[in-house]
Design a protein that fits this description.
4-stranded parallel β-sheet; Rossmann fold; hydrolase; protein phosphatase; alpha/beta
């Protein structure tokens, strides 16, 4: 069966993108589609490479019955060549990714904002790093809505 590949990207890969990755992985597992998707997340920057997600992100996921063992990594040239979709959180991610993809021969990834899929039209998923637990919950809810809609479109 044809694998669709999805990578979710944020600046540091410790708050938003690991939440989105874990949410998407749970959705495809619940739908028994895990063999059709390869899901990963990455950072535009190299600030947090090797680090586990923010403890508030982990506790937010745990509150929703989701575990993740993700460690932050930086996006690579190969990601642009192997992933079908690269979904990011905000305009600065989008700019950075488009710039990086222009330096990659045979980039096949479709790069877009995850928020494009939000039925509630919240285009930007704000970084909750300097916020409260409530901000992490908001990110979770946005990711869940967007990932569901994305999966419906491409499943």
């Amino acid at each position: 069966s044809e694998k669709s590949l999805e990578s979710l990207v944020s600046i540091g890969n410790i708050c938003r993108s690991p939440i989105a990755e874990a949410v998407f992985r749970k959705l495809v597992t619940d739908e028994k589609l895990e063999n059709k998707w390869r899901t990963d997340s990455a950072a535009v920057s190299d600030w947090n490479v090797g680090r586990f997600p923010d403890s508030r992100a982990l506790s937010c996921l745990r509150n929703h019955g989701i575990e993740t063992a993700h460690k932050a990594r930086q996006i690579t040239k190969e990601d642009f060549q192997t992933f079908d979709h690269i979904l990011c959180m905000d305009e600065s991610n989008l700019r950075d990714l488009n710039r990086k993809s222009n330096q990659v021969k045979d980039c096949k990834a479709k790069i877009e904002l995850l928020g494009t899929y939000d039925p509630q039209k919240q285009l930007i998923i704000e970084d909750p790093y300097y916020g409260s637990e409530k901000d992490f919950e908001t990110v979770y809810e946005q990711c869940l809505r967007c990932c569901k809609a994305f999966l419906e479109k491409y499943h």
